[in-house]
Design goal:
498 residues, alpha/beta, seven-stranded mixed beta sheet, 16 helices, 33% helix
């Protein structure tokens, strides 16, 4: 076959998928498979890293076979991944020493409070751009070193390797132990200015440098794959939200996107200098193209959005599929005064309160399952509003539109609610799964498949747009009630809670 293609792996929280793109960035093949979530006890969330690796191999080969492509028809593979999820494995055997600790896992709650000490959660923010929280990889590494027999000594001797999921996959594909700046920046161990592991942070968390991967740009040829994919250049790695920023062609300062999936993540490009947040946002590396300076971003992370719909389906049984929630929510005209704050894993941006737990506020005898469905969807819109307000304040300018992507954007009621609550247009691109597109764009740039970012920008096309239609007084009353509900989630966890 004379035509050439780009493949991207999106290893996400719920599943692994492979998308194959042609030269016009059109999707020609998709393969996807879910993996297990392991919940050993309340607050613990794990994955089987070996299962994830098997699934990734399957989806790549299946996506190619579905359209009759050979490995030689693909010029490069890009990887995007769930961030912060922590894998430790034996250098000699490649076998994980423990299940992967998922980014939602909260077992490090006591540890992060101990690390904060008198300085509190912002102790390391000036170095790594992040507050101390259970979210990030560094404390997860420390927990594993402390709780798996003999692991600390083995790690110090270089016998055990650490990686986020990108690093785990690249190591299995190529044998090279590397990560990119976007994933390294989510560990709490990388210095934002030097883009290298920071000795002060490593010492504070007790993480041996010998177990850490080499930090590389987001897009360059790391190595060629072996095995069934032998000869395929692995040419990009970005954390999923950074890949979505790139896939949404947010290449200029002020460009912003939000990905709506299990959690939701709003990123704004801030250019070549990191902007420290005064409003609870994260300062992060947006992406780094080869030898060019890094592009930074502000990020607001919301832990539970799509996961709340899954909970509503699986734990309450009020809907049979995620898509049914829109139909149920449309049986009523509003939320009936009911607000649902899904602080299942504490509150992320802009609050960063690991002691918070979820509440349903405003319940009366009038409330039906339709009102609850509305409250579930509106939880995503109000949480987004909190993050946008914080971002506007930090950036010094008001956001004028929001590009959206991810599975939840198929819900038209949710998208209209977003436009109403934010009071800005909400725009969805033709390719809604932009983390996969961003990884493909990045890999394509690395091997010259696409010439430059302007060529990528010209390919981006709008598929749908929602305009605000809510009266300002209704919007502000709803936001006031939301903030009252949020206040009721605080200080739920006590010192004697597990």
């Amino acid at each position: 076959m004379s035509e050439q293609f780009i493949a991207s792996v999106d290893q996400g929280t719920a599943s692994s998928r492979c998308l194959v793109f042609d030269g016009r960035a059109r999707v020609i093949s998709v393969s996807q498979i879910e993996h297990r979530h392991i919940f050993p006890r309340p607050g613990y969330v794990e994955h089987d890293a070996a299962e994830i690796w098997r699934n990734v191999q399957y989806v790549v080969q299946d996506a190619l076979a579905t359209v009759g492509l050979a490995v030689g028809d693909v010029v490069a593979l890009g990887i995007t991944n769930q961030r912060e999820t922590t894998v430790l494995w034996d250098r000699a055997t490649g076998v994980p020493v423990h299940n992967a600790l998922n980014w939602q896992d909260m077992r490090t709650d006591h540890l992060v409070r101990e690390l904060g000490g008198d300085a509190g959660p912002d102790r390391f923010r000036d170095r790594c751009g992040l507050p101390l929280a259970t979210y990030f990889s560094g404390p997860k590494i420390r927990w594993l070193l402390d709780h798996v027999d003999g692991l600390g000594e083995r790690a110090a001797n270089g016998e055990v390797l650490f990686g986020t999921i990108d690093s785990w996959l690249i190591w299995n594909l190529t044998g090279r132990h590397v990560t990119d700046v976007t994933n390294a920046g989510r560990t709490m161990l990388m210095n934002l200015e030097t883009l290298d592991w920071d000795d002060v942070l490593l010492d504070a968390m007790g993480v041996p440098r010998a177990m850490l991967p080499e930090i590389r740009p987001s897009m360059e040829v790391y190595a060629e794959a072996g095995g069934a994919l032998a000869g395929l250049p692995v040419a990009a790695a970005l954390g999923d939200q950074h890949a979505a920023l790139f896939g949404q062609t947010c290449f200029s300062p002020g460009d912003a996107k939000c990905t709506y999936g299990t959690g939701s993540f709003l990123l704004m490009n801030t250019g070549e200098q990191p902007v420290q947040s005064a409003n609870g946002l994260l300062t992060t590396v947006g992406y780094k193209i080869g030898d060019q300076p890094a592009t930074y971003a502000l990020e607001g992370s919301i832990a539970v959005t799509g996961a709340l719909v899954q909970w509503f389906r699986d734990k309450l049984g009020l809907i049979g599929s995620a898509s049914e929630i829109e139909t149920l929510a449309r049986t009523v005209d509003d939320n009936g005064g009911c607000y649902f704050v899904p602080a299942f894993s504490g509150l992320f941006a802009p609050h960063w309160r690991s002691d918070a737990r979820g509440v349903i506020a405003g319940l009366t005898g009038y409330i039906s399952k339709g009102h609850l469905a509305r409250a579930v969807l509106e939880a995503t819109t109000w949480q987004t509003r909190e993050v946008v307000d914080a971002m506007n304040s930090d950036a010094g300018v008001a956001m004028t539109s929001l590009k959206v992507d991810g599975g939840m954007t198929a819900n038209n009621l949710l998208m209209q609610s977003l436009a109403d609550v934010l009071d800005v247009p909400v725009v969805r691109p033709i390719v809604a799964e932009t983390p996969s597109l961003g990884a493909a764009y990045a890999a394509g740039l690395a091997v010259g498949f696409w010439p430059d970012v302007e060529d990528l920008r010209a390919q981006w096309h709008k598929a749908a747009e929602w305009l605000p239609a809510m009266e300002p007084a209704v919007r502000e009353k709803g936001y006031r009630k939301w903030r009252k509900a949020v206040a009721r989630t605080m200080d739920w966890v006590d010192a004697d809670d597990d």
